[in-house]
Amino acid sequence: MKLSKQNAYDMLTGVGILGTGGGGDPVGFGKPMVDWDYGKGRVYEITPPSEIRDDAFIVCGGYMGSVSAFTSIGDMLEAWETKYELHEAMKMSEKITGKKVDHLVPFELGGTNTTVMLSLASRAGITTVDGDGLGRSAPETQMITFVGYGIELCPMPVVTRNGSVIIVEKTTSPALADEIGRFAVVQDGGAGANNHYYQTGAQLKEAVIPDSISKSVELGEAVRDANENGRNPIDAFLDITGGQRLATGKITEVKGEDRAGHWHVLVTISSKEISRKLQIVVKNEYMMAMAGGEPVVMFPDLICLHDPKTGHGIMSSHLKKGMEVAVTAVSAHERLRHAGSTEIGKKAFSPARYGHPELVYLPMEDIIGRLHK
Length: 373
Prior knowledge:
Layout: H1 5-18, H2 26-39, E1 46-47, E2 57-65, H3 73-80, H4 85-97, E3 103-106, H5 115-124, E4 127-129, E5 131-132, E6 156-160, E7 165-168, H6 176-187, E8 191-200, H7 201-207, E9 209-210, H8 212-228, H9 233-241, E10 244-259, E11 262-270, E12 278-283, E13 285-291, E14 294-298, E15 302-306, E16 324-330, H10 334-341, H11 343-348, H12 364-367
Parallel strand pairs: 1-4, 2-3, 3-4
Antiparallel strand pairs: 2-8, 5-9, 6-7, 6-8, 10-11, 10-16, 11-12, 12-13, 13-14, 15-16
């Protein structure tokens, strides 16, 4: 399926919500990149997982770095016409394996990390899988379905903005590859691209979150249609995802910092719908919602913050005191939950990774009732 420019715009609206505050800005980054690529005659094309050959060679990938590294989009797009770090990383993957890449699969859903993979596929003359590794965004490379299905993260080539190339061949813990890569890109230009999770078509079909790009297009279309026809866009989102409203209110505090390539903050929201204090733990993405200090939604389940008027998603880096927000929650895809329940997944997805080692994941259906205690 070839995406029209309008399809691509609608996709950006969808991933802007499902990206749970991270994955890159769909307005400040994704839309300029779509406009740039389509202006250059590139077209984004997706292939359903069911149509991928079992013996196809697929690589996953995306960009990593600090939030501040993705602000000069015009300069970045111009530079990418000469050297696209993500393409360089893909060439390294082909060199390492001796195989030609047949398809690409995005690491996550997000305004940057979905779009850059679609762009890479169009530049390389191949297609992007209609799917991704999460059905949302996540702050670390090991937080993905693939780890729970025996697909190895390494080798992981990393190409920094300034041109360094690092290949993480093997690690002794699931989070170490991400930490090595993030250290390199932060030290050498603030951003960089990686490839990882080499897999066959057969492995992909078992592990990928299927049809997530086309679902993002559908979500974007529904939100746009609701806005154009005077319906509630957040209701349109919830009708498709089966999610739940948590609250609508005003941000009273945003406390934290950009540290080691991650945006670590605690957001406090005051809402008349909830008697207890609602707080969102952020590590680039919205990782946990708490009411009165008790978890009510935890990663990998999705916490989405919307503009109450348009229903569009709000990036975590854009949150400000006094901002009105609507908060919804959506159950993670069963494959992502399965990955988090495996031995390696429990380490890779642990609440310790976002500052809460005392906690253990519980599905939102089991704890969301605490919200109105």
